[in-house]
């Protein structure tokens, strides 16, 4: 029997390595009911206060922080860890340098609020606080609220090198997007739903200038881009402008989490190629059309995708702990 047990244990470990999202078994709603029963309301109140201070950047900043965290090493708050003299952490990788400081600050403030309660102090992981904060910024900006699964531990490692090739890029096509999401156990429908996070927030001119000036020799402007929209973008991002100037991702309702993202794609107003391709590619176009005309269906799909995203690479047992300071390993 011993060899059989050993084989079973080995097989399980191989499965968990190949499919990191399977380690989410310990996640459940009301995980902290016995140690910090009011944790969700504590986090929500802290996020509400943060939104009063900086609403325009806190919502997209927190949402992007969660996404970038889960896609690299799993949802373990490793993206929040600060670099040291001996280690360049995830947050300092070029793909993460545009993450808004207010997203990090939202987690820090929520963590401080939780730790003010004696029974909660150092009992709630930074990864779970980020998951709750993300749900709250979505709901407080007009999007759906949902029961968030909790029980993640904070990761024990954070390196810039681990980010390489793991995050979607503005130039990605549908095959590339699907491959990146599939690597994290997410379907094409999940990818399209999560891409709608671009209904809030902003990007910098340098991220899309190729679409309005240097797309190709025959077409300087990307032909899938609405010409009037392209002209507006050129006005906001002239050729020699500082590439760090910020432009709203959603030109119509940039402060509201809604399904306008899909309506914009129908009108050729997806800011990135990775946005507009969801409409121009016939494999994803029907989903875009469906959610453009059915907000409740989109919201249900988004909640499902966010729940699945939150299960990616969850740390358990000796693979994680609860950080006293979200930016510093214990």
Secondary structure elements and pairings:
Elements: H1 2-18, H2 39-53, H3 55-71, H4 101-115, H5 126-140, E1 154-155, H6 174-182, H7 188-195, E2 202-204, H8 209-212, H9 227-236, E3 246-248, H10 260-266, H11 273-280, H12 285-292, H13 295-309, E4 320-321
Antiparallel strand pairs: 1-4, 2-3
Helix pairs in contact: 2-3, 2-4, 2-5, 3-4, 3-5, 4-5, 7-13, 10-12
What would you say this structure looks like, in words?
It catalyses: 2 a phenolic donor + H2O2 = 2 a phenolic radical donor + 2 H2O. It comes from Rhodamnia argentea. Its EC number is 1.11.1.7. The protein is built from 13 helices and four strands. The two termini are 40 Å apart. With 330 residues, it is mostly helical. Helix 4 packs across helix 5. A two-stranded antiparallel ribbon has the order 1-4. Strands 2-3 form a two-stranded antiparallel ribbon. The longest helix has 17 residues. The chain has two domains: 162 residues, Orthogonal Bundle (Peroxidase, domain 1), CATH 1.10.520; 135 residues, Peroxidase, domain 2 (Orthogonal Bundle), CATH 1.10.420. It is 45% helix and 3% strand.
